[in-house]
Design brief:
Elements lengths: L1 H14 L7 E6 L3 E7 L5 H5 L4 H17 L2 E6 L1
Helix pairs in contact: 1-3
C-alpha cells in the first residue's frame, strides 16, 4: 500500500511551496484505505487547484492503483 502513499506525497511535494510540511498518513481497513494529506496552509490552494481539479486528478490516479490491488482508496486533504 505504500506505493499509493508515496505517489500522493511525491505529487504534493512537487506542487507545494513548503514541501517539508507535506505529510501523508494511512488509515487502513479491511478492503479500504484512507490517505490523509496535510500541507501548509499557504499550499492548500495549490494542492486543491481550481475547482478541485488537482485534487480530483490525484484521487483518480490513486483510484486506478487501488483498483489493480482490489482495494478502495479515499484521499482526504486535511
Amino acid at each position: 500500500m505504500s506505493d499509493m502513499k508515496e505517489l500522493v506525497e511525491y505529487i504534493a511535494k512537487a506542487l507545494a511551496d513548503y514541501p517539508d510540511q507535506v505529510q501523508v498518513s494511512e488509515i487502513e481497513g479491511e478492503n479500504s484505505l484512507i490517505l490523509e494529506l496535510r500541507v501548509a496552509p499557504d499550499d492548500m490552494g495549490r494542492i486543491i487547484g481550481k475547482k478541485g481539479q488537482t485534487a480530483n486528478a490525484m484521487r483518480a490516479l490513486i483510484r486506478v492503483l487501488a483498483a489493480k490491488q482490489g482495494k478502495r482508496v479515499t484521499l482526504e486533504i486535511v
